[in-house]
Each structure stands twice: as C-alpha cells, then as structure tokens.
Amino acid sequence: MCSVNFMDTSLSVEEQAIADRIQELKAMLGDDLLILGHHYQRDSIVMHADFLGDSFMLSQKAAQSPAKYIVFCGVHFMAESADILTSDAQSVILPNLRAGCSMADMATLNEVEVAWEEILKTSGLSDPISRHDPDAPAEDGAAYLVPVTYMNSSADLKDFVGRHGGVVCTSSNAVGVLQWAFDRAGPNGAVLFFPDQHLGRNTGLAMGITEEKMPTWTPGIGAMGELKGARIVLWHGFCSVHKRFTPQQIEDFRSAHPEGVVVVHPECPKATVERADAYGSTQFIRQYVEQLPAGAEVAIGTEINMVARLAQEHPDKHIECLDEEICPCSTMYMIHPAYLMDVLERLVDGEVPNQIVVPPSVQEGSLLALNRMLAILK
Ligand code: SF4
What we know:
The protein is of the alpha/beta class and 378 residues long. The chain has helices spanning 13-29, 43-46, 55-64, 76-85, 109-123, 155-163, 174-185, 197-206, 247-256, 270-275, 282-291, 304-313, 337-348, 360-377; strands at 33-38, 51-53, 69-73, 91-93, 145-150, 167-169, 190-194, 216-218, 222-224, 232-235, 261-264, 278-279, 297-301, 318-321. It folds into three domains: 13-100 and 331-358, NadA-like (Rossmann fold), CATH 3.40.50.10800; 104-238, NadA-like (Rossmann fold), CATH 3.40.50; 242-321, NadA-like (Rossmann fold), CATH 3.40.50.10800. It contains 14 helices and 14 strands. The strands form three sheets. It has a six-stranded mixed beta sheet, with helices on both faces. Strands 2-1-3-4 form a four-stranded parallel beta sheet, with helices on both faces. Mean pLDDT is 95; it is low at 1-8. Iron/sulfur cluster is lined by residues 40, 75, 101-103, 152, 239-241, 303, 329, 331-332.
C-alpha cells in the first residue's frame, strides 16, 4: 500500500499524542483499513492518509481496494461516491458526519426535478428517459435535454442524472464529458449542468459556446437568459472558497511579481479564470507547479491547505495563495484528527461508526452515471 510522503513537523504535544495513537490503531487494523485524504485536508490528517488526491481519484482508489474499512477524510458526497463504487462487503466511513459541501447543498433533488420539468416545457426539448438507448448519439433531427452533474453533488442527484441518460463529470474531465453529452443531446439539444455555474460556464466558453447560449437557473426564480436555443443551462451554485478569488488579486500579484504566473481552479468566476495564466483541476495545478523552473513565482487560486503543502514541497519556488485572507474550506476542516482517532478506536472495538450508506433505491442510477463517466475516460 502506498503511503503519502508528507509528515507535519509542527504538531503540539497533544496533537502528537493523537497522531501517535492513530498510527497505533492503523497498525492494529492493518490491511482491513484504507485511509483516503483529499488535497484540501489539513496536514495533521494528510500525514495519516494512504492516498492523497482529488475526489475522483480517491473514489477510484476505494473501488480498487480490498480493504474492509475505507475511512474517507473529505466531505459527504465523496464518501457517497466511494460507497457506490465499492462492494457491499466494504464500509465507507466519514470521520465527521457534519462534513458536507456548501456547493453540493445548493442543488436538491426536488429543486432539480422542478427545474427539469420547467426547462423541458419551455425549451421544447425531449427527456432522454424516453430513448431506447440513451447511450447512443442522438438520432437525426432529435433534440434532447441531457443532465450533467459535477462530482460535487449528492447521490440522489447522480441517480437522477443516470436515470435521465446523463453523466457525472469532474473538473479534470468536464470538456470530454460535455462533448459526450452534446453528442447525446443533438446539435439543437442542450445540457442542464449542476450544481457549479462557474465550472459549467468556464468549460462551455473553452468549448466555444457563447454566454448568451448559457442561461443560469436559480430555484424559486427560474431562468436568467433565454432557454430556447440554449446549449448549457447552468445551475446557480458556486463554491464559497473559489468564488473569493478575484481579478483584482491577480492584478495585485502581477504588480508585486512582474515575472510571476497565476494558476486557478475552474470553480473560480469567469473573470478570474480569464485573467489567469492557466486553470485546471487540483491535479492540473499540482503538475503546473511541478513543471515550473526553480526560482519561479506563482500565485494559486485554490484552497489554502493545498497551496501551503505545495509551497512546502517546492522550497525552490515562491508559491503564495492568490487571496491573502483565504480560509480553509470550512467543511473540509471539520475532519479533525481527534475524529479520525475516534472512528479508528471504534473500529478496533468492533463497531462500524459513521458509515455512509447510499440507499439501494439510488445506487443503480448513480452507478450508471458514474460508469458512463469512466467509459468516456477510457
Ligand atoms: S472547497 Fe468548495 S466545492 Fe470543495 S468541499 Fe469545500 S465548499 Fe465544497
């Protein structure tokens, strides 16, 4: 089993005691245990992770692992995806059940169902649920509304998407997934993209779709823009961390570092992405920083724990967060080492605490939507 090569050297006495106990418990559980850590977790969690990565990579690691207990140090939707992709004999555990995602919470099943019916009625598009084979490209002359959900969404939305001929995407594969969806929608069809408007808009613009063809949908308000002739209907959601990065911060960095470069995450607003030198997923950002020469100066627009870790890993480069005031993602931060220690103690005692179980009624559609994405990636 791979282990994350990062050890925090600045733990307090109490934190060190917790870290030592976690290591003892890990040793007791042996191969029965897999600990996954998201890039946005704090160092005192990451140091215990068997794998560090983004939500999709970690779900794949869960799916490939024979471990009986998978402790997911991330947020709720990530643990749900891991549960969908693992066998019934495996248990996925979230150390703190309150660790959700504010963006994922911005789209509920009821809101999406209301929007779906309204958009179908107004646009005149067809529901792919009526198709004999929703995985085949659209028939000549047909125009469908195809749902695409970002990985950052609840399992019941992934199920909705799967049942309506749609697919899941991540920030690293959004272009390929949207192309797949457009082929299923037909040249006059459209995609309903949720919950992150910024990832949807930035990806649409990169694919040559104009903003007039991307109206926004807000529950309780409806569409901002024309639904007839739209190519992507963007849900109004956003990430509270990434929306804080602004064009002004980029200007300020460039003034202080004329030779510096800026890289941001596609969950940032369009105006910020447009002014950056590069943008992409957490994995892209890591690779972008790695290929920069020694002495390079770079500002990064993503969560602070990941930026701080990159700075420690690359002492030969000047790395700073684009927003000097940025806080960690508040829900990711709910995974405290004491919670991790507690769930491991209980596992050793024979209990299975904080298990995330996706109900069988939404397993099938969710798996279909996730498997469509995996097939596109091949
Ligand atoms: S960083 Fe944003 S999208 Fe990611 S878990 Fe936190 S709130 Fe959700």
